[in-house]
Amino acid sequence: DKVLAELIEPYEVRAAKLREFLEDVNPSLRYDIVPLVDPYGPAVTDADLQCLVVSEETRRGGEAVNKKRLENGLPGLALYEILLMKDPDHSQNEEEKISSSSLRQRLLGTLLRPPRQDPALPSRPYVIGLTGGTGSGKTSIAKLLGQLGAFLIDADKLGHAIYVPGGPAYEQVVAAFGAEILNEDGTINRKVLGAKVFGNQEQLKSLTDIVWPEMARMVKEQIREADARGE
Question: In this entry, which stretches build a coiled coil (predicted)?
């Protein structure tokens, strides 16, 4: 829950940086850097290992490693506990230690590029579009923006409103896809409609050519109304 893939460097780059750091610390030692593909890594299978460096907060992980080693018939490792350096400039919402989590938070709070100056864009209303797949956090971000005073437009809700009897796209959708997409009460059965269009690019384009312009019109209308209210 704290990993943003775009902010994680490729393994080869991270390993090279780590090796450079370790060799700066002590160039006389031999370093073997390996990727960790499970919670334990080689610590539970390498019989040559003798010591595991832990911090106060990772000691329990070291103890779990030793438990796993004993299960594998290997002797436990000596746990050498080190103190973590504190970050004197950490904010209230950041960890006290120097950590990659805090660094990622700072990166997320930094503009990737300056806002584009476009004289054709009005200074208000300022419109932000949230996109992404299921589970990407659109609802959470929208909720936070709403708490800051933003007026929210939910495209999913608009999409549902378009299909209801009397809605702006209802007659066109029924005419294009036939009465078989209707329930007994006259509402559009979205599952039946979905079965017709998903997997059929031509049918899907026919539907989006009807629905998307209506959704765009409704969004612009809501933006105008919100702006008139000073929201």
Answer: none
CA–CA gap between residue 128 and residue 111 (Å, rounded) = 15
**Could you tell me if 70 and 76 are in contact, meaning their C-beta atoms sit under 8 angstroms apart?**
yes
- On whether the CB atoms of residues 204 and 197 are closer than 8 A, the answer is yes
Instruction: Return the structure tokens found at 230.
Output: 């000073």
Report if residue 88 sits inside a domain: yes
Please provide the DSSP assignment of 38-93 as one string: SSSGGGGT-TT--EEEEETTTHHHHHHHHHHHHHTT-PPPEEEEEPPPB-TT--TT
Tell me the pLDDT of the chain averaged across its residues.
Answer: 87
Residues 90 and 150 in one domain: no
Alpha-carbon torsion 5, 3, 155, 151, what sign? negative
The model's confidence at residue 45, banded by pLDDT at 50, 70 and 90, is very high
Q: What is the CATH number of the domain that holds 217?
A: 3.40.50.300
pLDDT at 6 (0 to 100):
63
Q: Are residues 99 and 58 in the same domain?
A: yes
Whether 17 and 99 share a structural domain: yes
pTM above 0.85, yes or no: no
Between CA 157 and CA 164 the distance in angstroms is: 11
Between 22 and 114, where is the model more confident?
22
Q: Which among 79, 80, 81, 76 has a CA at the least distance from the CA of 47?
A: 76
What is the domain range of residue 177?
138-229
Query: How would you class 136 by CB atoms within 10 Å of its CB: exposed for 0-12, middle for 13-18, buried for 19 or more?
Result: exposed
User: Given the DSSP bridges, would you call strands 78-82 and 51-55 parallel, antiparallel or unpaired?
Assistant: parallel
